[in-house]
Design goal:
Blueprint (H helix, E strand, L loop, with lengths): L17 H5 L6 H13 L4 E8 L3 E2 L3 H11 L7 E4 L5 E2 L4 E8 L7 H25 L3 E4 L10 H11 L3 E2 L2 H4 L12 H6 L4 H11 L6 E4 L6 H12 L3 E6 L24 H13 L6 E5 L4 H9 L6 E4 L10 E8 L2 E2 L14 E2 L2
Parallel strand pairs: 6-7, 6-11, 8-9, 9-10, 10-11
Antiparallel strand pairs: 1-5, 1-12, 2-4, 3-5, 3-14, 12-13
Length: 354
C-alpha cells in the first residue's frame, strides 16, 4: 500500500452543487423516497454501510466521495467514515469505505458516491496500466475530446494519481494546481495552409517561453521529412515531434519498406525512421511522442521491441471497461443485518476520515 501520500483533497476543491445534491436532484429516486419514508415515520436506524468493488483496480474518486458525504449529508458530525485513499490498489470484494450513522442523514447520497468511485477508478486504473506498460517512458493523458467536458476535472486528477505526467486541459490539472499541456495541432497547421514549419514557428512565437514546443508532423503523411524540416527551422526550440498517423494511412517513409509488417498508422518502423532521420540531421535531443490508437497492449509491444519512443499520448482507451462499486447495509443498530450474500468484510487498511 502507498504510505507516502496520506492527505486528502479539501472538499472545496470539487465545487459540488451542494444544494442540488442535498435535495436528491442527482440521486436515484428510490433513495430519495426511502429517505423521505424514514423521516416521515420518525425512524432513525443506525447502520453500517459497506462499499466495495468487484475488480482488481486502483482506487479513484475517494476524496470526491468523502466530499459529497461531508458537504451533502444532513449531519456529517453524526457519521463515522473509514476509507482507503485515491491510488490504493484494491482487490475484488475488498471494503474500500464504511459509513456508520443514522441512515436517513446520508441515504440520498449513495448514487453519487458510488458513481464517482466507479468513474474515477476506471480512468485511474486504465491510466495506471498504461503507465506501467510504458515505464520508464512518460504518458500524456489526452482523452478529453472523447467524453463530456463535465468529467474533465476528476478524470484528470485520477490520471495524475495514476502516474500520467501531463494532461491536456487546465480543468484536468486544476485539482493539483497545474495546467494543461499540448502540441501544435493539425487545425493550426491547416490554418497556415498546411505548412507545419510556419504553424510551428507562429505557435512558438506567441507561446509562453516556458512552453515545451511539440508539433504534429503527420499532416502531409511524411513524418520523416516534416520532422527534420521543423527541427531545422526551430533552431533548438523544438522539444518533440508527435507522430499521429491515421491507422488507415501508410506514411511516405514506410512505402519502400512494405511487405513484412503491418504498415499503417504509427508503427515501430515509422518511429525508427524518424529517430534515425533526426539523429542523422543533428537533432538527437528532439524527442518523439506517439499517439493514435495506443492501448496497454500496443504500448507493451513497443516497449518490448525497444522502439525509440520518448512519450505516449493516450486517449479513448483510458475510458474502456467497467469498475463498478456496490454499497450494502451490513449492520443495523449494532447487530448484523444484510441481504443474502452480503456480510461484514473488515479491512484493516481503512483509515478514519476526519
Amino acid at each position: 500500500m502507498d504510505t507516502t501520500r496520506r492527505t486528502r483533497l479539501d472538499p472545496s476543491v470539487f465545487h459540488l452543487p451542494v444544494e442540488r445534491m442535498r435535495e436528491g436532484y442527482y440521486s436515484d429516486k428510490y433513495f430519495v423516497r426511502a429517505r423521505g419514508t424514514l423521516i416521515a415515520d420518525g425512524y432513525s436506524p443506525h447502520v453500517t454501510m459497506q462499499v466495495f468493488g468487484k475488480s482488481v483496480a486502483y482506487l479513484g474518486g475517494m476524496d470526491e466521495a468523502i466530499a459529497i458525504l461531508k458537504l451533502c449529508s444532513d449531519d456529517w458530525s453524526a457519521l463515522t467514515v473509514q476509507a482507503l485513499y485515491d491510488g490504493d490498489p484494491i482487490a475484488p470484494w475488498e471494503t474500500v469505505m464504511t459509513i456508520e450513522g443514522p441512515y436517513e442523514t446520508f441515504a440520498h447520497l449513495e448514487t453519487l458516491y458510488l458513481g464517482v468511485l466507479a468513474r474515477r477508478t476506471r480512468v485511474g486504473t486504465n491510466t495506471r496500466l498504461v503507465v506501467d506498460a510504458a515505464n520508464p517512458k512518460t504518458v500524456m493523458f489526452f482523452p478529453a475530446r472523447h467524453d463530456h467536458w463535465l468529467v474533465q476535472t476528476g478524470d484528470g486528477y485520477a490520471a495524475h494519481i495514476a502516474g500520467a505526467i501531463g494532461v491536456s486541459t487546465d480543468a484536468q490539472a486544476s485539482w493539483w494546481g497545474s495546467t494543461g499541456i499540448g502540441t501544435v495541432p493539425h487545425a493550426l497547421i491547416a490554418a497556415y495552409g498546411g505548412d507545419t514549419v510556419l504553424a510551428t514557428r507562429k505557435f512558438a512565437e506567441y507561446a509562453d517561453p516556458g512552453v515545451q514546443i511539440i508539433t504534429l508532423v503527420d499532416y502531409e503523411n511524411d513524418c520523416v521529412r516534416t520532422s527534420v524540416e521543423v527541427a531545422r527551422a526551430m533552431d533548438g526550440r523544438l522539444w518533440a515531434v508527435r507522430l499521429d498517423t491515421s491507422e488507415n494511412l501508410v506514411d511516405s517513409s514506410i512505402i519502400p519498406q512494405m511487405g513484412s509488417f503491418r504498415p499503417t498508422g504509427v508503427n515501430p518502423h515509422l518511429v525508427w525512421n524518424v529517430r534515425r532521420a533526426l539523429d542523422d540531421a543533428g537533432f538527437p535531443k528532439v524527442q518523439i511522442m506517439v499517439s493514435g490508437g495506443f492501448t496497454v497492449e500496443k504500448i507493451r509491444a513497443f516497449e518490448e521491441s525497444g522502439v525509440p519512443v520518448d512519450s505516449y499520448g493516450v486517449g479513448s482507451s483510458l475510458f474502456s471497461g467497467r469498475f463498478d462499486f456496490t454499497a450494502d447495509i451490513v449492520s443495523l443498530n449494532d447487530a448484523p443485518q444484510s441481504k443474502a450474500g452480503r456480510r461484514v468484510r473488515p479491512n484493516p487498511r481503512l483509515e478514519p476520515v476526519t
